[in-house]
Amino acid sequence: MALCLKQVFNKDKTFRPRKKFEPGTQRFELYKKAQASLKSGLDLKAVVQLPPGESINDWIAVHVVDFFNRINLIYGTMSEYCTEKSCPIMSGGLRYEYRWQDDSKYKKPTKLSAPQYMCMLMDWIEMLINNEDIFPTRIGVPFPKQFQQVCTKILTRLFRVFVHVYIHHFDSIINMGAEAHVNTCYKHFYYFIREFSLIDHRELEPLVRMPQ
């Protein structure tokens, strides 16, 4: 029997707290606007478009944080099926292998299991979005010049979570009755990155047929 959204995205199954927007800030208002559009049933292609008069960097920041939260929930929900034994390599089928590099502990692209890669990824993103020098929250503090480059890297790596989940674990998603919610999240993500050209088209090849 299909599970309801609350059951599918059970916060008790995730491995880190959600990043939140501070009430009263411009980003919180943009987040509310984005969520209201999603819930209104509007076409997802229209939902991702920049609202008139709004800052593109604020709009991107809101979505990067929201996608991090949502994709973290998706992976947390099915992480019990993604183990060192079942997924010894972080991959998307036989053609695509993703290696980890963070210029800190892993200075060269390193082969990791999928669970290790996911853990490193979520820690890395969490560190970035909580860094005031990259994702400033104070009024009047500008975004750094490399902000969109950082977001491109974050979104590219988050896309790889979708690749791994769809190719290696979609049977589990179906068994949980979660496929409709995962598909909606993926389509929202896909239309957003295409709207603002935030991911190299070559990265999209593993799931090139999915939007249809």
Mean pLDDT: 83
Estimate what percentage of residues fall within beta strands.
Answer: under 5%
- β-strand number: 0
Anisotropy-based shape: globular
The low-confidence parts are 1-15
The CATH class, by name, is Mainly Alpha
What is the ordering of alpha helices and beta strands?
A: HHHHHHH
Spell out the CATH superfamily: MOB kinase activator
Distance N to C terminus: 26 Å
Main sheet specs: none
Task: Summarize the amount of helix as a percent range.
Answer: 40-55%
Category by helix and strand content: mainly alpha
Radius of gyration: 17 Å
Count of structural domains: 1
* CATH-scheme architecture: Up-down Bundle
Total helical segments: 7
CATH topology: Butyryl-CoA Dehydrogenase, subunit A, domain 3
Pfam families: Mob1_phocein (PF03637)
Binding site for Zn(2+): 82, 87, 164, 169
GO molecular function: kinase activity
Protein name: MOB3C kinase
List keywords for this structure.
single chain, mainly alpha, globular, disordered N terminus
Q: Describe it for me?
A:
There is one protein chain. The protein has 212 residues and is mainly α. The chain has one domain (49-207): Up-down Bundle (Butyryl-CoA Dehydrogenase, subunit A, domain 3). 50% of the residues lie in helices and 0% in strands. The protein has helices at residues 5-8, 26-39, 44-47, 56-78, 114-129, 147-175, 179-195. The radius of gyration is 17 Å and the shape is globular. It starts with a helix and ends in a 17-residue tail after the last helix.
